[in-house]
Design brief:
TIM Barrel; eight-stranded parallel sheet; 44% helix; single chain; alpha/beta; 12 helices
Length: 252
C-alpha cells in the first residue's frame, strides 16, 4: 500500500490569531491519524513559526507554499529553503497553478526549485495540471505529460522517493467544479505510467500522486478510493478544522 498524503494549502488566508484558532481546532480533531496517512498544513510564511510551535507533538506536519531556488541573496520578497527549515517546515508546495498563472513560473523554474528543496532535505509537492481550454481540446494527457517531464528533469531515483506529485486540473481549483473520480484516475494513471518510463517501475509504483481541485468532505472518499490517487492537495476546505479533518479521515 502506498502512503497517503493530505496537504492543506491555506493560500493567502489566516493571520496569526486565525492561524492559532484553526490549528487548535485541528489538534483536537486530529490527535491521531491512520499509520499510512500523513496530514500536512501549509500556512502563509508569517504563520510558519507559530504553526510549528502549535503542531509540536501532534501527527500533523508543516509545509510552505513556495520557495526560491537560491540559498540566499538579493531576491526581494522571496524565501529560501534555509528559512523554511528553520521555521520548522518539512514539505514545500512547488509550481502551484496560481504560481504559474500569476507569477509566470515555468517547468524549468519549478524543476530548479525542486532540486534545491531535495538537496536540502525538504520534501517537494510538485503541481501539474491543465486548463479548461486544454481539456476541451482533448490535450490533457499531452499537457500534463510535458509538465511532468519538465519538472522531474534530471532527478534521480533517490530523489523520486521523496517527491510528491499533485495533479490539479486548473479548471477545478476554487471553482466548485471537481474532476470526476474517473477523470482524475485517468490522469493519475497517465502520470504513473510516464514516471514508470522515466524511472524504474518500483519508483512509479511507490510515487504518491495527490489530486487537487475542489476536494471536499463529501467527495474525498470517492476520489481517494481510486487506484492511483494517493492523497489530496486541499484548498478552501482546509481553512476549517472540521472539513480538513474529515478529508484526512476519509483516506483509504
Amino acid at each position: 500500500m502506498r502512503n497517503v498524503i493530505i496537504a492543506g494549502n491555506w493560500k493567502m488566508y489566516k493571520d496569526l490569531r486565525e492561524t492559532a484558532e484553526l490549528l487548535d481546532g485541528l489538534k483536537s480533531l486530529l490527535k491521531s491519524v491512520k499509520p499510512h496517512v500523513t496530514a500536512v498544513v501549509c500556512p502563509p510564511y508569517t504563520s510558519l513559526a507559530l504553526a510549528a510551535e502549535k503542531l509540536r507533538g501532534t501527527p500533523v506536519r508543516l509545509g510552505a507554499q513556495n520557495m526560491w531556488h537560491q540559498d540566499e541573496g538579493a531576491f526581494t520578497g522571496e524565501i529560501s529553503w534555509k528559512m523554511l527549515k528553520s521555521a520548522g517546515c518539512e514539505y514545500v508546495i512547488l509550481g502551484h497553478s496560481e504560481r504559474r498563472q500569476y507569477f509566470g513560473e515555468t517547468d524549468e523554474l519549478i524543476n530548479a526549485k525542486a532540486r534545491k528543496a531535495l538537496v536540502n532535505g525538504l520534501l517537494p509537492i510538485i503541481c501539474v495540471g491543465e486548463t479548461l481550454a486544454q481539456r476541451e481540446k482533448g490535450v490533457t494527457s499531452q499537457v500534463v505529460s510535458a509538465q511532468v517531464k519538465g519538472v522531474l528533469a534530471g532527478l534521480t531515483e533517490t530523489d523520486m522517493a521523496k517527491v510528491v506529485i499533485a495533479y490539479e486540473p486548473i479548471w477545478a481549483i476554487g471553482t466548485g467544479k471537481t474532476a470526476t473520480p474517473a477523470q482524475a484516475q485517468e490522469v493519475h494513471h497517465t502520470i504513473r505510467q510516464l514516471v514508470g518510463e522515466m524511472f524504474p517501475t518500483h519508483v512509479a509504483d511507490q510515487l504518491v500522486i495527490q489530486y487537487g481541485g475542489s476536494v471536499k468532505p463529501d467527495n474525498a472518499a470517492e476520489l481517494l478510493a481510486q487506484n492511483d490517487i494517493d492523497g489530496a492537495l486541499v484548498g478552501g476546505a482546509c481553512l476549517k478544522a472540521d472539513s480538513f479533518a474529515s478529508i484526512v479521515n476519509a483516506s483509504k
